[in-house]
């Protein structure tokens, strides 16, 4: 996660429209040297910040997804992106006028990559404009808002996906395969450690209004989501404890370090750590009756490294966002089913767990979960 951490701290072919309105055909993609003749997802990115830039760059190697539009409050960024990515003026919007995307037949989906607390209203506005939506994680800042987003997308008949890039990562998927096929035996224990030392105290990630919380919303969510896809069950209870060493930097409602524990229906348990105040924490460990699996780093941009009781995992490194966007194109345009879901319902489960973790911290009690 180094490059991400650094960022945070600094603070073809001819497209032929056919009968299906959302589809265009592309002929060949030179980047991966594979002939591709299928539908292409035309994407507008909202929020041209550090992660938006990373996604845009990665999308240049996609074969099924293409960056065609932008939504930003900063005209100079729009100009830069227009020249860098050849984006036509008619596909450029700002936060005031983007509802007009409704009348733009050349955009299929909007990828919302803005501060967490803004996702809800922005996603709902995109849905009302009749476009599919991808929201960055966390989908919103609590389960109530998440449910409203799901409802709005259902009502509008558009798909809602969330940027869970690890759900397409090859070493992660290999462990999930081993677990599903019984190679690890009964799952007993998961440990997820996710954190980094956050810099600039003035950034939105440390502002409750924009972030909705602190480390848990941003990085702890990887341990929550990871516990679910590594164990392969939904937790039924959670306990949690918070520690805060710097009340000036981590104000009320902005968590610095939270340790939390899950219980699963099979009897498996998990022990996780979410922090904005320690480095070198990007590790998953899964213990099972017949073996173990370890990922370290586990959720950074990669290369992810992993091993199991059978030896090193050697699946090739892929650019997460490139694969994610190609796979999401398949989900949106062709109804493909991912191995681990990336839809609003999946994200809502994480939000319900975050709500429960905050409640467990506040009450000091074990909180039951019904996901
Ligand atoms: P960033 O600060 O670099 O970018 C945020 C963008 O939103 C900026 O361009 C900013 O101008 C814009 N913005 C619009 N309205 C704003 C407002 N009212 N206040 C502040 N900024 C506003 O942040 P980022 O790192 O790009 O994160 C954006 C989202 O992406 C977050 O939800 C974050 O959790 C998510 N993210 C996901 C990953 C991942 O690996 N999936 C990685 C990084 C960030």
In short:
By secondary structure, the protein is an alpha/beta fold.
What does this structure look like?
The protein has helices at residues 2-9, 50-59, 75-85, 119-128, 143-156, 170-180, 208-211, 215-231, 320-334, 344-363; strands at 16-17, 24-25, 28-29, 34-35, 41-46, 65-71, 92-93, 109-112, 132-135, 160-162, 187-195, 237-243, 257-263, 269-275, 281-288, 292-295, 306-308, 311-312, 367-368. 32% of the residues lie in helices and 22% in strands. It folds into two domains: 30-163, Rossmann fold (3-Layer(aba) Sandwich); 166-315 and 344-368, Dihydrodipicolinate Reductase, domain 2 (2-Layer Sandwich), CATH 3.30.360. The strands form four sheets. It has a nine-stranded mixed beta sheet. A six-stranded parallel beta sheet has the order 7-6-5-8-9-10, sandwiched between helices. Strands 1-2 form a two-stranded antiparallel sheet. The protein is globular. With 371 residues, the protein is α/β, with parallel strands linked by helices. Mean pLDDT is 93; it is low at 1-31. The longest helix has 20 residues, at 344-363. Bound molecules: nicotinamide-adenine-dinucleotide. Nicotinamide-adenine-dinucleotide binds next to helix 2.
């Amino acid at each position: 996660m180094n490059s991400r951490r650094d960022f945070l701290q600094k603070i073809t072919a001819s497209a032929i429209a056919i009968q299906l309105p959302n589809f265009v055909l592309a002929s060949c993609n030179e980047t991966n040297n594979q002939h591709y003749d299928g539908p292409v997802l035309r994407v507008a990115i909202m929020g041209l910040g550090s992660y938006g830039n990373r996604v845009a760059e990665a999308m240049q190697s996609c074969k099924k997804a293409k960056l065609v539009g932008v939504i930003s409050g900063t005209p100079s960024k729009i100009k830069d992106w227009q020249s860098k990515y050849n984006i036509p003026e008619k596909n450029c919007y700002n936060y005031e006028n983007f509802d007009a995307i409704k009348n733009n037949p050349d955009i299929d989906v909007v990828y919302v990559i803005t501060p967490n607390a803004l996702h809800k209203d922005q996603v709902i506005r995109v849905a009302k404009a009749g476009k599919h939506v991808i929201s960055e994680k966390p989908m919103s800042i609590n389960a109530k808002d998440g449910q409203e987003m799901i409802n709005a997308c259902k009502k509008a008949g558009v798909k809602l996906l969330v940027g869970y890039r690890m759900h397409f990562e090859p070493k992660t998927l290999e462990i999930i395969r081993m677990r599903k096929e019984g190679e690890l035996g009964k799952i007993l224990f998961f440990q997820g450690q996710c954190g980094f030392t956050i810099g600039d105290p003035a950034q939105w990630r440390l502002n409750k209004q924009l972030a909705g919380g602190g480390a848990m919303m941003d990085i702890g969510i990887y341990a929550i989501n990871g516990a679910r896809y590594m164990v392969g069950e939904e937790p039924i209870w959670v306990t949690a404890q918070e520690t805060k060493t710097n009340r000036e930097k981590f104000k009320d409602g902005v968590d610095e370090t939270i340790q939390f524990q899950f219980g699963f229906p099979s009897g498996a348990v998990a022990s996780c750590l979410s922090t904005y105040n320690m480095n070198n924490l990007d590790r998953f460990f899964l213990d099972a009756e017949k073996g173990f699996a370890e990922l370290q780093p586990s959720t950074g941009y990669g290369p992810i490294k992993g091993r199991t009781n059978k030896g090193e995992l050697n699946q090739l490194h892929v650019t997460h966002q490139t694969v994610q966007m190609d796979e999401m194109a398949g989900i949106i345009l062709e109804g493909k089913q991912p191995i681990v879901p990336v839809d609003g319902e999946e994200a809502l489960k994480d939000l319900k767990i975050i709500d429960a973790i905050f409640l467990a911290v506040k009450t000091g009690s074990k909180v039951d979960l019904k996901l």
